[in-house]
Task: structure prediction
Amino acid sequence: MKREHSHRPPPPDPFTGASSGQKSKMWEEAEPDAGVDELLAVLGYKVKASDMVEVAQKIEQLEQVMGHGQEDELMSHLASDSVHYNPSDLSSWLESMISELNPPPLPPPPPMEDPFLAPAESSTITFQDSPSDYDLKAIPGNAVVYPQIQPPPNKRFKPASSSSSSITSAMPVWGSNTVESSRPVVLVDSQENGIRLVHALMACAEAVQQDNLKLAEALVKQIGFLAVSQAGVMRKVATYFAEALARRIYRLYPENPQDSAFADLLQMHFYETCPYLKFAHFTANQAILEAFANKDKVHVIDFSMKQGLQWPALMQALALRPGGPPTFRLTGIGPPSHDNTDHLQEVGWKLAQLAETIHVKFEYRGFVANSLADLEASMLELRDGEAVAVNSVFELHQLLARPGAIEKVLSAVKEMKPDILTVVEQEANHNGPGFLDRFTESLHYYSTLFDSLEGCGGSGSPSQVSNQDKVMSEVYLGRQICNVVACEGPDRVERHETLAQWRARFESAGFEPAHLGSNAYKQASMLLALFNGGDGYRVEENSGCLMLGWHTRPLIATSAWKLS
Amino acid sequence: MANPSAGEDKEKRPRFCINDNVDVLVEVLKRLDGRSLGAAAGVCRLWRSIARSEWLWEQLCFRHVAPPPGVRPVVAALGGYRRLYMVCLRPVLTRLSKRKRLDGTTIGGGDAEVVRRVWTRHEVEVSLSLFCIDYYERLDAGAGGGRMGETPAAASLMFLCKPVNV
Result:
């Protein structure tokens, strides 16, 4: 029972006209394949109905092999104590999946005798031409580890009657669970699908980069199916990325969110659910506080005013500093609001109320600007004798969408003569020139971010900050994903860059780093310890800047700068 | 005469009742931990009025840490020491007292730990910051903010109220 289309397409530069033609042909040919068992076909296993007998035999053999050898501890573990590996811990299960998949990642197409092993390969048969792009090596970081030695697939499924040595020699691969799992694992469909889901996402992204929209479209549909078979983080992340890819393919670009009120609401939920924004605020405030030591008049210019949540804590710290509070002036800059409310003024009013309560002399001015590049230092009415701090949380990367904007803003900042410039940005490179690279990077980044959200939600705990907040936070992140993947040109505003890249930019613009002190570090660590799932978060110091990450992956970075 | 000495003794030694000696009561309550102090408010009206006094809770909040200058009017304006303790300081201390041993297992947590614990300046600072944010967020909800006492904590502090998965 050979597969009809098991011939390999020629291995050319992937997706030149010829081979892509062949591929789409293969795709079309596959569809009218009569007699393929439908249930398995949904999962991508092209098994003919007539071959189900063999499939059943193989299942029996598998059971025999697993139940056999009671003397071998490892195997009896498998037989009785098998545990489904948790797919929501994305990086580690990917790792274990790859190392446990006995067959090498891209083997020659095996005959269909081994339906339970083969599907991983046979369904990816279409993509074997450009292994280096499709295989999971493309995912940077340690999410995927390639096993060094691959025993051939057949060994595992030798009938039980063969020498037990060959079976036990295959067993160590089962038992060698990598890294975080110490429990024996049984390969289940959802894990196979998980692997194929990632493959499909990467393949689709590559197809989009190659402008092969027909293939991309087919893949996006497959991704949809596969995503549904997953659970938890993988499902959510895949769904958001699939939607973004679909938007790009069908050119249904998301409208740039003009509704800043909704965006603010989403950010509020994100603020409440997980520590990233609080970390950003606390660390930036600490730097500003230290820069304002002994100054009587201080002026903060906030590029990211939103709800003004950063400032109560700073005002309170200023109120309680030895020597009493300075005169505190705040200039808030924000986008125009599209209903008739003057959002910036409302926030200013609230802050003024707070200031009056804690007896801090306060002055506020709100500026509406479509883009920070429209701002000039002369508009701000800077006064002599004031210490100035400029603050930007997740705003500067948006300027990279228009050429020259960031330079203009940085020179305007220099004209303001700030004592300190505090910047918080996402720690990721989502602004590379190639689409596939950006896609891969952001897949890794947002998977980690969603992973960290899992611990924050109110799963099972009766509290008001529960699933709704978590979902809103996910929507907030989903919009970013959509922008990174689906948009281009000036619309693509989520142009995140790494700390190293920003550092180079600031230094060439005439700033030098101001180190965040140990107070900031201690406060940040303490803040993180307060959150549910606090052990997953890590604060790292990186040449005077602080980075917050989830396990080994840094996610946001706070840095402080002064004029050199 | 039946037992004149007993009668004399009885007159000379009046029965001691704590409620008649408020200064002693205050000295005792001053040394209690937060939970006990809260419980003390349920004993009787006198105890309640004392146990809810801001001064006692101020003593509790700054038992181990010197108060920053000028803190009293700020805290009073933001909702008071009792609220500061209940809404911010106690949850912060509870969370942070769930320390990890070197082998990774968690110890501590719960009110008993909080009683014995000495807290540091940093914990008070973080609590004060969160307290201020709490006030700011409630400015939306309440009629012109600053309501003392009983309003529930603002949304951004809800992460402190959730039970911790240990």
